[in-house]
UniProtKB/TrEMBL annotation:
KW Transmembrane helix (keyword) present: no
Pfam families for the chain: LON_substr_bdg
Coiled coil regions, renumbered to chain: 242-276
Organism: Kalanchoe fedtschenkoi (Lavender scallops)
UniProt protein name: Lon N-terminal domain-containing protein
Family matches, as Gene3D superfamilies: LON domain-like
Residue ranges of the region described as Disordered: 1-20
Length: 287
């Protein structure tokens, strides 16, 4: 699922290693699978079915929040820098063809099938915070390429680089949202999550209207009983095409702050879509 034409929220007071920005997104349907790969996976004819693993709110279970490693643990993790952001609970299809990452895959298939996905781009470099991707399905081809389906698990922060060859390995610590000190924190989070869900529904409804699409029944229950923290990750994962903003959301260690930022972004987007819808009503032939 991806939300259309997201507009930026005001800068957060939190310190980030980069300033987030949002570029307009193209309209995608809720059922669109995100094929982020080193070579476009969708352009090749494959029998690698992913329909049962598409990213939706139901993918964002509480599993990665229970029994997670302690935040002060220091562990070595192979890293896979990519121009995208993986969130806990999100599904990520990948194609592996570069030699060093094929070596990494052979190692992972003999161990725990977990590696770190970390955002990188030419302008800001490589981020310090990423998300563990766990291989839940894979296919090895005769030419030693791999097709993978990964699911986001714990977040991590890079502490030290262990080595860069044949692939990047770093020492990382685990990152978790800090619990609220407010006695009414849980109730406030529930109310905030409900507001975010309401904005998402309105954005989807107006987007479908502008694109001449009927409203889908599934848009009536976006949250699917998720607790606020995994729901905030789900919302962040829908901001496809805006990786710097997604990275800023991933780095936040406060569920309320993440939901508030998402709420502001969705509100700005809704205002834009409302204006666009009004223009379309006045000038029906306008594109």
């Amino acid at each position: 699922m991806a939300l259309p034409q997201l507009l930026p929220s005001p800068p957060s007071s939190s310190a980030f290693t980069r300033k987030p920005s949002l570029a307009p997104l193209s309209s995608l349907t809720r059922d669109s699978a995100k094929f982020a790969s080193l070579s476009p996976l969708s352009s090749r004819r494959r029998k690698f079915h992913t329909s049962s693993l598409r990213c939706s709110a139901s993918s964002f279970s509480e599993k990665h929040h229970t029994g997670s490693p302690k935040s002060d643990d220091l562990v070595e993790l192979p890293l896979f820098p990519l121009p995208l952001v993986l969130f806990p609970g999100a599904i990520l299809p990948l194609q592996i063809f570069e030699f060093r990452y094929r070596i990494m895959m052979h190692t992972l298939l003999q161990t725990d099938l977990r590696f770190g996905v970390i955002y990188t781009d030419a302008a800001t470099g490589t981020a310090e915070v990423g998300c563990v991707g766990e291989v839940v399905k894979h296919e090895k081809l005769v030419d030693d390429r791999f097709f993978l389906i990964c699911k986001g698990q714990e977040r991590f922060r890079v502490v030290n680089i262990v080595r860069t060859k044949p692939y990047l390995v770093a020492q990382v610590t685990w990152l978790e949202d800090k619990p609220s000190s407010d006695v009414n924190g849980a109730e406030d989070l529930e109310a905030l999550a409900a507001e975010v869900e309401s904005y998402m529904k309105d954005v989807i409804r107006l987007s479908n209207r502008l694109n001449g699409k009927p409203e889908k029944p599934e848009a009536t229950d976006l949250r699917r009983n998720l607790f606020p923290t995994p729901f905030s990750f789900f919302v962040g994962s829908t901001f496809e095409g805006a990786p710097r903003e997604q990275q800023a959301l991933l780095e936040l260690e406060d569920t309320a702050a993440r939901l508030k930022r998402e709420k502001e972004t969705l509100r700005n987007t809704l205002n834009y879509l409302t204006a666009a819808s009004a223009v379309k009503d006045v000038f029906p032939t306008s594109s």
